[in-house]
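ABC-type Fe3+-hydroxamate transport system, periplasmic component
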Amino acid sequence: MNTVLNNQLVITDQAGRQMWLEVPKTRIVSLAPSSTEIVYALGAENNLYGVTDYCDYPLDARSKPKVSGFSTVDLDLIRESKPDLIIAAAIHLKGLLSDLERIGCPVIVLEANTIEEMIKAIRIIGWCVGKDQAAAGLEISIRSRLCFVSSKVARVKAKDRPRVFYLHESSTWKTFGAKTIGDTLTDIAGGYNVGRDFGDYYPYPTFTDVVKSDPDIIIAETGYLANPQEPLEIARKEPAIAGTKARQTGRIYGVSSDLISRPGPRMVEGIEKLAELFYPEIFNKTATFKGIPSG
């Protein structure tokens, strides 16, 4: 367990790296949108002195100084921000981590592929910025909302769960395989992710693969292209998958990529939205969770 004692924190980050930190940290550079969202969710946004080009939520994050792409970083801009903590991601482990460490401040790596890992990331950032209580409160809220969904879908037998295909990348038809955030969220929301049958992480199924999997539902990730609705339009019109149950029944929906691909606090909103789409007869207008329109 990580414990703060006399402003000293022994931390094990999500790359398994253990270190001593003096806390709280007041000048943070976040190199992942998910970490930026966590900092905001904890009310520590005034501690952010650098973010990535992709840190777009909440709206105020777009006004923070940009020091990075995602896989690429501007080391000079990071140095100029004079951070006392850099929050990196797994993508930075190969090649960039040693460069970041030479800047002269601690670097922690946070990477979540499950709800529990996301909650751990919230705890770690909370400890680092002196927002332990806010982190605990956010965890309680997330777990309460998850419990609501789980209690509803628990009544559904495994054989009755809808088979779901995700159009994660419309140009290649890359999808969520096993060991991904999307696979985790689908399971919690009461669906079966057919992408796990194609392999781990992010496989590239062919149209034939998709047709053979015969999904009941197709979820197209929206919001990240020049035309944010393009993936949904492609999923609805691609002739090669016209014979699938999803196309035959019209159960093709758009869900914001931020909710199902970004491992931050809004993952719970993604689960709620998926559950609503999977089981409209259960999660109707009287449901107490926050629904988000598809598309």
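thats it. The first strand starts at residue 4 and ends at 5. The mean pLDDT is 92. bye
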